[in-house]
């Protein structure tokens, strides 16, 4: 993943995101213990995944028509929101580059939705 992120950012006008302390501690834990963790997120295939700009949240979009948002702390990821609103598969999502609480999802239903990770859809 780090190699892939490095490759992505080396060809981008955007600098790589800063890594927060919790993320670095979790990364060290996984490196030391060789562990991988699964986090239930959807009823069907997760189709798109993206970290927010401050590295504290990750979102996933699914063929089950939902967007899940997880919060990162020193113990791992905790699902904090499961947004419903699309009437078809969520194909893509991405976070706002300078407002880490906003993300947008695009769906097969031909709509986009802007979500506020503090709680609601805009």
Report what the structure shows:
It contains two helices and seven strands. The chain has helices spanning 2-10, 21-33; strands spanning 46-51, 57-62, 66-73, 76-84, 90-95, 102-107, 112-116. The strands form two sheets. Strands 1-2-3-4 form a four-stranded antiparallel beta sheet. It is globular and about 45 Å long. It starts with a helix and ends in a 6-residue tail after the last strand.
Secondary structure: elements and pairs:
Elements: H1 2-10, H2 21-33, E1 46-51, E2 57-62, E3 66-73, E4 76-84, E5 90-95, E6 102-107, E7 112-116
Oligomer: single chain
Radius of gyration: 15 Å
The end-to-end distance, rounded to whole angstroms, is 32 Å
Strand order of the largest sheet: 1-2-3-4
Mean pLDDT metric? 78
Task: Looking at this protein, list some descriptive labels.
disordered N terminus; 38% strand; 122 residues; three-stranded antiparallel β-sheet; alpha+beta; 7 strands
Q: Can you describe this structure in just a few lines?
A:
By secondary structure, the protein is of the alpha+beta class. The chain is built from 2 helices and 7 strands; from the N terminus they run ααβββββββ.
């Amino acid at each position: 993943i780090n190699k892939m992120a490095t490759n992505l950012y080396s060809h981008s006008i955007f600098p790589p995101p800063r890594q927060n302390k919790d993320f670095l501690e979790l990364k060290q834990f996984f490196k030391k213990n060789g562990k991988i963790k699964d986090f239930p997120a959807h009823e069907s295939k997760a189709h798109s995944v993206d970290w927010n700009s401050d590295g504290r949240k990750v979102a996933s979009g699914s063929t089950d028509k939902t967007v899940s948002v997880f919060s990162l702390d020193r113990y791992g990821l905790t699902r904090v929101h499961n947004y419903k609103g699309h009437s078809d598969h969520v194909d893509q999502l991405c976070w706002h580059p300078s407002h880490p609480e906003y993300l947008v999802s695009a769906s097969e239903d031909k709509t986009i939705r802007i979500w506020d990770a503090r709680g609601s859809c805009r």
